[in-house]
Amino acid sequence: MRIVNRVVAAVLALALLVGGVLVAVEIVVAAFGRDPWVVPHDGWYRGVLEHSWDDGASRWVFIGLVLAGLLLLGLQLAHRRPVTLPLSSGGAPADLGRRSVERSLVRAATAVDGVSRAKVKVSAERADVVATTNRRQAEEIRPRLADAVERRVRALDLARAPQVKVRVEGRDG
Amino acid sequence: MRRTPDRLNSTALTLLGLLLLGAGAFGLARGYDAVGERQASDPVLGETVRDFVARNDDWFWPVAAAVSLLVAYLGFRWLLAQVRTPTVARLRVSSDPALGTTDVSAPGAAAALAGDVGEYPGVRSARARVMSEGASPEVDLTVDLHDDGDVADVRRRIDEHAMPRLAEALEVAALRPTVHLRLYEPTGRAVR
């Protein structure tokens, strides 16, 4: 989602830059009594004189503005997991890359005897571990797995250790 | 903590979103008689605005041009923030009219810091950037650790050994460091 935000920001920033320069240039061009250079502002001027607020075309423009505004606000309100997790205070401010923590916890989980595969999702509050085993007694693995992942989390020196939630799926899912 | 444009983007896009939503909602409300039946059938560019511009023709357009250039400048800075991270090329270590000035290459100092940290047990590699100058320069340090590395021990060494050595080399009383750690398996690849 951050990438989307950055792309949208770059496009809008470029639009502001180009638009701002063009408007300033057009004002200077118009001051010398010349025809519009790039922006057909004379046509736009006629348009806003001809169209009223309750005109169909005007309403579509306003609906477009509302939708664009809602889209931008929705993009900001979308839930995002943190890129980094802060480490405990004391010394220089420090953080750990969240995705690298997830991979570390995957390695801790797959090192447990009986676990063939694991997926980990870490947020500020939780570390959700889903492990797959080939063993028939999937539940027997659960305490060992939780212990291994929790030990790994504790060793990371995080300011706020996420709560570890473990689920073990057997061969039959 | 990492210096990225994410917060700036979020604030700017929120403000822009509110502005667009407000403008669109006002236009729709006015078009649907919320402000008055007569106003709904007025042209979008009303007589009041046209009269105001005509009366103040002498200063209105120069101000409009200046505001447009300001918007363009803000757009330029915003665009720049997407692609550039602040770094310093040189740091002034000492300045004396009689003896001249001594500058230190900031990338060189950063490389020395990264070299120190790269030697610590459990560290796979390290990179550093000096991001500002002055009495307490900002230093951004990224450390890739092996999975079995001791996070607390590496942090302690950075605080007690690497940063004081850099501060001493730069002849400053203090630094403002930020440390970013990533965990790596011995032969794998970590993704932030």
Give an account of the 3D structure.
The complex is a heterodimer of chains A (173) and B (192). Chain A is of the alpha+beta class and 173 residues long. Chain A has helices at 2-31, 41-50, 56-77, 98-110, 138-155, and strands at 84-86, 94-97, 115-122, 126-133, 163-169. Chain A is built from 5 helices and 5 strands, in the order H-H-H-E-E-H-E-E-H-E. In chain A, the strands form 2 sheets. A 3-stranded mixed β-sheet of chain A has the order 3-4-5. In chain A, strands 1-2 form a two-stranded antiparallel ribbon. In chain A, helix 4 packs across helix 5. Chain A starts with a helix and ends with a strand. The relative contact order of chain A is 0.10. Chain B is an alpha+beta fold and 192 residues long. Chain B folds into 2 domains: 6-83, no CATH class; 90-184, Cation efflux protein, cytoplasmic domain (Alpha-Beta Plaits). Chain B is 52% helix and 20% strand. Chain B is built from 6 helices and 5 strands, in the order ααααββαββαβ. Chain B has helices spanning 6-31, 37-40, 47-55, 57-83, 106-118, 151-170, and strands at residues 90-96, 100-105, 123-130, 138-146, 176-184. In chain B, strands 3-4-5 form a 3-stranded mixed β-sheet. A two-stranded antiparallel ribbon of chain B has the order 1-2. Chain B is elongated and about 80 Å long. Residues 188-192 of chain B have low confidence and may be disordered. Chains A and B meet through helix 1, helix 2, helix 3, strand 2 and helix 4 of A and helix 1, helix 4, helix 6 and strand 5 of B.
